[in-house]
Design goal:
The complex is a heterodimer of chains A (about 325) and B (about 500).
Chain A: H1 2-31, H2 36-39, H3 47-56, H4 63-75, H5 89-124, H6 129-143, H7 146-160, H8 183-189, H9 193-229, H10 233-240, H11 245-282, H12 288-297, H13 301-329, H14 331-334
Chain B: H1 5-21, E1 32-37, H2 49-52, H3 58-64, E2 82-87, E3 93-98, H4 112-123, H5 132-135, E4 139-144, E5 147-151, H6 159-162, H7 173-186, E6 194-200, E7 204-209, E8 222-227, H8 231-240, E9 245-247, H9 251-258, E10 263-278, H10 287-295, H11 299-306, E11 312-313, H12 335-344, E12 353-359, H13 367-381, E13 383-389, H14 392-400, E14 407-413, H15 423-427, H16 439-445, H17 454-471, E15 474-487, E16 490-491, E17 506-507
Parallel strand pairs in B: 1-8, 1-9, 12-13, 12-14
Antiparallel strand pairs in B: 2-3, 3-5, 4-5, 6-7, 7-8, 9-15, 10-14, 10-15, 11-15, 16-17
Helix pairs in contact in B: 10-12
The chains are: A mainly alpha (about 325), B alpha+beta (about 500).
Chain lengths: ~325, ~500
């Protein structure tokens, strides 16, 4: 019952958080200089023309009135119409969400595999040159931001050895007739290996660029946790029972050492989703982040609101899921 | 070479590795033309909303839709959907003849009714056309046979020029009324050289050749335009052979890439210019300060040092391609004159005049760096300018509200080359695009808006430009050059408007 009560409370606080985000975003983007009407003013526009355009887009009303109109629309699932694309905002952001989610999940998977492997190697060969190599590698990976990794990868695998696609999510010539925009997941389910190969060819570089800094963080934290755990009594007991070092690390130490890393991964995953904004732009990946930059450039206020609300929703959901996982994996909390 | 098992294995392994890596596409015959384009296409309706006045996407629109009156690559006006046109008696009416035998991409015939409806639609304030102030000058639009006529109660000398400019596109009446705005966005059709086959917003558009195009079928039957907004990625796209053509890359990269095997480049001046708006507030009300600022800038030096020589210095808001260009109007680089002018107003390098200059950073090639260089040149003569970086959206808002700083860097496009759409809108006080409120210039410009005698009109604008230059009411800097890099296997014809048009590309 406690778990359900906690989830209920978290869902309620999520709703309050989203409302707060909506208010802040709504006000802030209307207060900062640069409005879309000024960008579309014709050279000969009169005051009447400006007033007409403002009325057409609802900017002639007070911010409070605009917010109430927007909020009542949101309650009915209508997030307004994008100024630049003239399409419903909800449809636009939901059509781009799968691309960003798939990219983030693939990046997270790569980060966990890379980071985990580095941490295990560093622990297995602790206090040797191999551990120093792991530390140097993770230090370098962490000190270079993801967009620079992106440029390095473009140079390596896009220009010098052109094996991956530099831009886009899928080849334009490829005909797919999928029922969702989760192309990667759906192609796996449908066993469309041609589509999987094409998607991976496009996704590999942006996902790796996103993953490298996160992998470094995972490696450092997990290695530290593992090293601390390796000195605990139950690990020593396992050794005295004659288990090999590999068994001791992966079967005995890892399950306990992984918990703090899991919390970190949850927090970092939200940052990783945020990082897609720049990476998607760099690789012209058709996700939410790429769309967000265009929305900001064009001062497409309804679209900015929609994207920010969705990002905020994603962040809160991810945090909620991480908390629940933590409870499930940690027996102390589960029975508290 | 002796055929042995070892050699055979080596050759097979090399071939397999080569196949796995994949040959760059510039080494292969080009079936599908791939263009790495520098901006996204937000909307497919070229006549309404924000996209309609975005000059950077007009090339995409012109691939699918036809302008009423097309412009040739040298900006001269051609014969298109409208084959002939003119004013009626007393300039109170206009007439336009519509080309026969043109079909829409869905096979429907284009009629004069389509042209009349397209004009009426953008003339209607309710549709949200940003250029309604021009289209709204005609009324009583009628189609009879292949001729469209309309009344023009107030003479507008640039009306037909606007038919080659922003929002001047022919739209399909029957189809649009059937599918509505949303349906049109999902499946746009036009009469242009290419048809939209597939469109992924923020990703790409795949175009298929319109074999029935009235101007002749384009050479490349399939064209994919990838939206690659990052310049470094565009460079990588064309360098790796993933794309065949790209544009708007740094000039240093252009120079490097065009000399590479398998690549070529073309860099021609386009109709965009770089300029500094002077707002007649604070110290800019002093003509000596303005003139000193103008004479202190060595434009050629900036072009040579910062833009690798890619640019044409200008002294008025007209480029050599524009109708009112007058090469006798000069604003010389003369720092000594600047010092003298400033001294006359009590300023010197020890007691500099101070003001703010606003600029974008990265919106145009080396915009911020150019302003930095200008500020450096100003400092030598006794001007201390503080740089404020802002976003382009803020520039538009401040400009519309007449709240720009005393100096503000901006770029201006005017592909139809008429002086009203350069000097006119930039310097006529009541225009939301002008921050100059001087009465003398206002009075000089006012009678030119409706001048019916074309020679007199153009001569009048030249006089306005001369007066503006003499009083340093704006600082024109340069005409931009557009760098285009492409694979050596194709020929790219640059268009002075800056539009990259795939139907002008052919195999070499």
């Amino acid at each position: 019952m406690t778990v359900f009560r906690n989830i209920l409370i978290r869902l309620l606080t999520t709703a309050v958080t989203l409302f707060g985000v909506a208010v802040i975003v709504f006000v802030v983007i209307r207060v900062v200089p640069g409005n879309p009407i000024a960008m579309m003013l014709p050279p000969g526009a009169t005051d009447a023309d400006i007033a007409r355009l403002q009325a057409q887009y609802g900017f002639d009303k007070s911010i409070f009135q605009q917010f109430m109109i927007w909020l009542s629309g949101v309650m009915q699932g209508d997030f307004g119409t994008s100024i630049s694309t003239r399409q419903p905002v909800a449809g636009l952001v939901l059509s781009r969400l799968p691309a960003t989610l798939e990219l983030s999940i693939v990046a997270l998977t790569i980060a966990m595999l890379l980071g985990g492997a580095l941490a295990l190697a560093g622990t297995r060969f602790r206090e040797t040159k191999a551990e120093a190599a792991v530390d140097i590698t993770s230090g370098m990976a962490l000190s270079i931001p993801d967009f620079l990794w992106g440029l390095v990868l473009i140079l390596l695998f896009g220009v010098l050895w052109p094996v991956f696609h530099i831009s886009g999510r899928i080849s334009p010539a490829l005909n797919i007739d999928f029922s969702t925009n989760f192309y990667l997941f759906e192609s796996i389910l449908r066993l469309r290996f041609d589509v999987i190969a094409d998607l991976v060819g496009h996704m590999f570089m942006p996902a790796l660029a996103l993953a490298i800094p996160l992998a470094a963080i995972i490696a450092q934290l997990l290695k530290q946790s593992l090293k601390e755990t390796m000195h605990l009594d139950y690990v020593t007991l396992a050794r005295t029972k004659g288990y090999g070092e590999n068994h001791v690390i992966t079967r005995e130490a890892l399950p306990n050492a992984v918990l703090p890393t899991l919390t970190l991964v949850g927090v970092q995953f939200t940052f990783l989703i945020g990082g897609t904004v720049i990476i998607e732009r760099l690789f012209s990946y058709e996700g939410l982040g790429n769309m967000a930059i265009d929305a900001v450039i064009n001062r497409d206020l309804p679209l900015i609101q929609g994207i920010v609300i969705l990002f905020a929703f994603l962040f809160t959901i991810v945090n909620l899921v991480v908390d629940m996982l933590y409870v499930l994996l940690n027996p102390k909390l589960r029975h508290a | 070479m002796k055929l042995s098992r070892r050699n055979l294995l080596k050759t097979s392994a090399a071939a397999a590795a080569f196949a796995a890596v994949g040959l760059p596409s510039f080494a292969q015959a080009i079936d599908e033309l791939i263009i790495a384009y520098n901006v996204n296409l937000p909307s497919w309706d070229p006549t309404v909303g924000l996209s309609a006045v975005n000059p950077t996407i007009q090339g995409l629109y012109q691939s699918v839709f036809d302008l009423f009156i097309p412009q040739n690559p040298d900006l001269s006006f051609g014969s298109g959907i409208i084959t002939d046109y003119g004013w009626g008696e007393g300039n109170k009416t206009i007439w336009m003849d519509v080309r026969d035998g043109v079909t829409w991409h869905n096979g429907d015939p284009l009629t004069a009714e389509d042209v009349a409806w397209s004009l009426a639609r953008v003339a209607n304030p309710e549709t949200g056309s940003p250029i309604q102030f021009i289209w709204g000058k005609i009324t009583n639009i009628k189609a009879e046979g292949n001729r469209v006529t309309a009344d023009m109660p107030e003479y507008e000398p640039t009306f037909f020029k606007w038919m080659s400019f922003l929002t001047g596109y022919v739209m399909p009446k029957k189809y649009y009324q059937e599918v509505g705005a949303e349906g049109f966005e999902a499946a746009p059709i036009g009469t242009g050289p290419y048809m939209v086959e597939k469109f992924e917003r923020n990703a790409f558009v795949r175009l298929k050749a319109n074999e029935n195009y009235w101007g002749g079928a384009p050479e490349f039957k399939t064209v994919t335009v990838k939206f690659v907004t990052d310049a470094a990625s565009r460079v990588a796209e064309v360098e790796s052979g993933n794309s065949h053509v790209t544009l708007e890359i740094p000039y240093e990269e252009y120079n490097r890439l065009k000399d590479k095997d398998g690549l070529a480049g073309v860099a021609e001046p386009i109709s965009d210019i770089g300029m500094i708006f002077l707002n007649d507030i604070e110290v800019m009300t002093d003509p000596n300060v303005r003139k000193a600022a103008a004479h202190a800038i060595d434009k050629q030096l900036i072009i040579d040092r910062l833009l690798s020589g890619f640019g044409v210095p200008i002294d008025t808001l007209q480029t050599p391609d524009y109708a009112a260009f007058d090469d006798s109007i000069k604003v010389a680089y003369d720092p000594e004159l600047s010092k003298k002018l400033l001294a006359d107003s009590g300023y010197s390098t020890d007691n500099p005049v101070k003001f703010k200059i606003q600029t974008t950073k990265g919106f145009k090639p080396k915009d911020y760096e150019m302003v930095q260089a200008i500020v450096g040149l100003w400092r030598r003569v006794g001007i201390e300018a503080e740089i404020e970086v802002y976003e382009i959206a803020k520039h538009f808002e401040l400009r519309a509200a007449d709240q720009l700083a005393p100096a503000a860097f901006y770029n201006w496009g005017n592909s139809v080359g008429d002086p009203t759409t350069s000097t006119g809108f930039a310097m006529f006080g009541p225009s939301p695009h002008s921050v100059w409120d001087g009465e003398a210039t206002f009075n000089k410009i006012l009678p030119l808006w409706g001048e019916a005698d074309e020679a007199k009109r153009i001569a009048g604008w030249k006089e306005v430009d001369r007066s503006i230059a003499e009083n340093a009411e704006v600082i024109p800097l340069l005409q931009y050059v557009q760098p285009i890099v492409h694979t050596a296997g194709i020929t790219v014809v640059p268009h002075r408007s800056g539009a990259l048009l795939p139907h002008l590309m052919t195999r070499s």
